[in-house]
Amino acid sequence: MQWDPGTQQVLSWRMAMEQAVKSSMAPLPIMNHGSNAILFYWEDQIPVDSFIARLKQMYEHLQDPKHLSTRIWELPVWYQKDHADFKVLQEHTQLDSEQLIELHSSSTYQVDFLGFLPGFPYLKGLNASLHIERKRTPSRAVAPGTVAIAHTYCGIYPRKSPGGWYVLGQCPLGLFDPRINPPTIFQAGDKIKFIPIEKGAFHQTYQKDDLQEVTQKYLQYG
Amino acid sequence: MGELKVIDPGFYTSIQDRGRRTARQWGVPFSGAMDQWAMQKANAILKNEEGAAVVEMTLIGGKFLSTHTTQVAVTGSSCNIEINELPVKADHILNLKAGDLLSIGKARSGHFIYLGIAGGFETELVQGSRSQYQGITAKAKIDKYDVLPFSEVDAVSHVVSAHQNALPSGSLQCYPGIEFHSLTRPQQLALLNRKYKISKLWNRMAFQLEELLEHQLGAIESGPVLPGTVQLTPEGRLIVLMRDAQVTGGYPRVLQLTETALSQLSQMRSKDSFGFVVTG
């Protein structure tokens, strides 16, 4: 199911549609979000036309989703002022390091969808002066928890990976564990605030908590 | 519990099954055997459940030592198979005793060879699947000296004859992709009337095709993609996403292969030419 480019509140409509499908479709489809679409995938043969008709009907009866409650994560980030990418971003924005940290951490972000890597959230809400094309040549290895930006998005690398986004800092929390269900703390629609921390605090909390503890400590409801 | 010891894994070998379906919303790819048809054949021969885990070998087979009596079957790309250096047949039940060495040679056609075992391999189950994938299973692939556990089940006593229809050859059946209708009519016809070959760039994530298609489509907002989604890059390159593909992509999606066509494509080599046919 896809919305026209430029449609307002697509994420809210996607979340509302996901909830509606979860509560009233059987068999339940496999779902995943894209920036202006949500995929419903049934493994078994289904009567396609009648299912599409039901989805359309469901969509027409959705309540205006703007009051949907969302979860808010307050995630600590050690901003890495010495990182080569951080310096590129300083040059890009013409800001000193404190101003850059302030600019990035003062926005409230929202998980648009997960993709690229298991548990990798694409976050909307990046200040327009931080929009930047991804690197021509990706870095070989980006550390787990890395908070980075590219295009209009901010992202968090759930694990070590090659990456073409510009690094701002690193979150010390373990954010993905495939042995747990769900394996990530994030879901489409979650809001995120970044709380700047110092290097010392980063090392004290680095990968200490499991996903359940992370949820207990860093999740607020909005 | 029996074990197969990996004496030589071959070139790129991994455990695969029907794939990991329910973790997609968190960005986890489906994975699963590239040629699902060949995997199911191995399991059918052994009277396993359809989705029992198998070993998938790429281009070059491996050598495996059994610690227990068991039965196995080798399917997929044709290859030489030996037990203790004596040739045996593909697509048949093969009896292994403790200490027997199963050696699988090079793929003579196609890319993927499958080794099924009675009861299925019982390696780590993560998010509903044993398919190996980096960052999800503890191991991303099978290495030398790995030990592959299997449960001991009653032997299948009779040879199952060829029970499945042959995998169709020739054109790949597909549906129009979401951006198919953004192509002009001549471009749509060109896409469907041409013959294609796969390029040297292929792996479990994607097969890139050799031929270019001229078009004017720009990138799209990142949207959901599936195994079998055919993407069209700005340079006109066609990329068919395979089992390990990411869950979202930013290129226009011009076609969507059927499940059967996806298995078919996985076994095509660069010399094989094929076309796309839109199914009704």
Strand percentage of chain A lies at 25-35%
User: Largest sheet of chain A, described in full?
Assistant: 7 strands, mixed, barrel
Number of strands of chain B: 20
Distance between the termini of chain A: 27 Å
By DSSP (H or I, 4+ residues per run), the number of helices of chain B equals 3
Approximate shape of chain A? globular
Portion in helices of chain A: 25-40%
Average residue-wise pLDDT of chain B: 94
Question: Biggest interface: chains and residue counts?
Answer: A-B, 35 and 23 residues
| Uncertain residue segments of chain A | none
Integer-rounded radius of gyration of chain A: 19 Å
Report how far the terminal alpha carbons of chain B are from each other: 48 Å
Rg of chain B, Å, rounded: 20 Å
Low-confidence stretches of chain B: none
> Helical segment tally of chain A?
6
How many strand units of chain A?
12
> Which oligomeric state applies?
heterodimer
